[in-house]
Amino acid sequence: MALRADDLIDRRRLRRKLTFWRVAALVVAAVGLIAFSSWIYGDDFTGTAVDHIAKVKIEGTITEDEDLIKQLDTIRQSSRVKAVILSIDSPGGTTVGGESIYEAVRKLATEKPVVAEVGTLAASAGYMIATAADHIVARKSSIVGSIGVLIQYPDVSGLMDKVGIKLEEVKSSPLKASPSPFKPTNDDERTMVRKLILDSYDWFVGVVAERRNMTKPEALALADGSIFTGRQAVANKLVDAVGGETEAIDWLATKGVDAKLKVVEWKDAESGGFLFSKAMARTIGSALGLPDYGGEIIHELGADRLFLDGLVSVWHP
Q1: What CATH number did the domain enclosing 154 receive?
Q2: Which parts pass through the membrane (predicted)?
Q3: Of 35, 93, 134, 242, which one's alpha carbon is 20 to 30 angstroms from that of 192?
Q4: HSE of 41 in the Cβ direction (CA atoms, 13 Å)?
Q5: Range of 170's domain?
Q6: 38, 87, 124, 313: which one is catalytic?
Q7: Is residue 259 a contact partner of residue 253, using CB atoms and an 8 Å limit?
Q8: Among residues 141, 171, 176, 286, which one is catalytic?
């Protein structure tokens, strides 16, 4: 006897429900298994429970990154970390962001050997962070340098005139809230901004001179915003050697670090341990065939640079 249309619809609905609960059960089982493994094996699950060389990736636009600074401090306190490789691939970012990470790396370097490995790019605040390491290696075709500071702001006053928009403002003093995108800057405003930039620039140049064993005039000669290849950077003493991770490990060996130690990448993790970490989210997502979370997509597209504000040290904002 042929099934009625209503019976067929009911069966299909039942199958959908069964499929949903089967998938849900698999996800719960996967979460439970990972959580149990993390609880049983602890740091062994991530490979940090044995002596190793920690690798920290610093990529994309530099901003104030409290998670990264906490991670660097955790690495500093870990007795299992015998040395650190900073893998840098960044065009720079905010000056304050670069400064805060620079100071965290310097604090770390007082207790463990730190080497910076430049990938495609270590410019501006990215290079600032690299100078905090005890040794810098870069590929022959890496881009290094762009030492300097800038502020950029739009001037939309012409557009406002065209569309008939006027800005009314009352302020306590002439330089309050200046420069403004709503009107052209005047000489006093440009002078104020230039003083701001030159003070941070002087600090940046001083850092390069101190960390790269240069005189201030030598550092200033390289701090005109120029970028260099890895080979040029070696010739100009901005980088110590040409190479990658192998050469970084070879240098660490000269500091008494066992070259046979495994290099373990320390990844970002949110509070709550591995169970609620970004690493676990990626693991489960990958198992279910899902793409990485949207934050990484935004990062890869470079959209985070759109939100830079204030004083920046970046190759191209």
Answers
A1: 3.90.226.10
A2: 20-41
A3: 93
A4: 16
A5: 44-269
A6: 124
A7: yes
A8: 176
Return the number of other C-beta atoms located less than 10 Å from residue 74's C-beta: 14
User: Among residues 205, 233, 207, which one has the least CA distance to residue 219?
Assistant: 205
* C-alpha closest to that of 46 among 249, 253, 246, 262: 262
Active site includes 237?
no
Kindly report, residue by residue over 4-37, the tens digit of the pLDDT: 666 666 677 777 767 777 777 777 776 666 655 5
The whole-number pLDDT of residue 28 equals: 72
- Residues 274-301 pLDDT 10s: 444 444 455 555 554 555 544 444 444 4
Structural domain contains residue 167: yes
**What pLDDT, on a 0 to 100 scale, did the predictor assign at position 242?**
97
Domain-embedded: residue 294: no
**How many Cβ atoms are within 10 Å of 71's Cβ, its own excluded?**
18
The answer for residues whose C-beta is within 8 angstroms of residue 314's C-beta and 6 or more apart is 61, 62, 91, 92, 93, 123, 124, 125, 146, 150, 305, 308
> Which amino acid, one-letter code, is at 162?
K
Tokens of 145: 């340098």
CB of 114 within 8 A of CB of 83?
yes
